[in-house]
């Protein structure tokens, strides 16, 4: 959604909830309300319950994330995530928050419906975290693969060389480098609550990176081949 920017770029005004407005998502773009939100490892973080947009600019600024059912057992509540931080899964109707940590979520304030009064400062919204195009990048031609893959396969490795060896093995068996991706992922080792208490037991020690290998398989045959290569009996 685009329009000309208003002359007064430093005003403070209330953002509008899409679900209670007369606006709708632009044709050709998915409505992500009610979509599951996951991290890079595919672990549940919650659900998108609304989008907040600037009526004057006609631009989405935040998604509202309800943390119910999150992997870290945080209490159910709603928080705001800048729209440019999120990505859409290339195949499934999921929203991805890459590299998000429990610590980053736990310090976010609660969002109360109808109380999003936020600066319209153009310098703030010029930041990449508010770039709407980031959200759709995985579903646009050439961003991950020219066509939507038949299946996205992921494997997590404890050592970088294990992920690299699997990467090379797939290349040697005919996979294209553009369809493969290795992403470092460092699980958080602890969570500190507002009172300063730290719990290191229910999340894991997070003392080192893990490595996520993603394969965009273009057909059922290619997906089956990837499984045979990665999971030899």
Automatic annotation (TrEMBL):
Gene3D superfamilies: Photosynthetic Reaction Center, subunit H, domain 2. Residues 30-103 form the PRC-barrel domain. It comes from the Bacteria. One of its GO terms (biological process) is photosynthesis, light reaction. InterPro entries: Bac_photo_RC_H_C, PRC-brl_dom, PRC_barrel-like_sf. One of its GO terms (cellular component) is plasma membrane light-harvesting complex. This is PRC-barrel domain-containing protein. The lineage of its organism: Bacteria, Pseudomonadati, Bacteroidota, Sphingobacteriia, Sphingobacteriales.
């Amino acid at each position: 959604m685009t329009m000309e920017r208003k002359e007064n770029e430093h005003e403070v005004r209330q953002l509008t909830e899409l679900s209670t407005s007369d606006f709708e998502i632009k044709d050709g773009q998915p409505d992500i309300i009610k979509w599951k939100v996951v991290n890079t490892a595919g672990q549940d973080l919650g659900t998108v319950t609304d989008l907040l947009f600037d009526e004057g600019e006609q631009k989405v600024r935040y998604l509202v994330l309800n943390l119910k059912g999150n992997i870290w057992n945080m209490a159910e509540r709603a928080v705001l995530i800048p729209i440019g931080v999120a990505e859409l899964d290339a195949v499934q109707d999921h929203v991805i928050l890459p590299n998000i940590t429990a610590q980053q979520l736990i310090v976010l304030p609660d969002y109360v419906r109808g109380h999003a009064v936020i600066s319209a400062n153009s310098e703030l919204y010029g930041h990449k975290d508010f770039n709407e195009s980031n959200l759709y990048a995985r579903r646009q031609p050439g961003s991950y693969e020219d066509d939507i893959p038949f299946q996205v396969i992921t494997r997590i490795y404890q050592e970088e060389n294990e992920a690299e060896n699997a990467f090379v093995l797939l290349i040697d068996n005919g996979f294209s480098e553009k369809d493969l991706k290795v992403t470092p992922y460092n699980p958080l080792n602890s969570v500190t609550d507002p009172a300063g208490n730290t719990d290191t037991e229910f999340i894991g020690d997070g003392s080192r990176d893990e490595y996520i290998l993603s394969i965009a398989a273009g057909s059922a045959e290619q997906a089956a081949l990837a499984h045979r290569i990665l999971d030899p009996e």
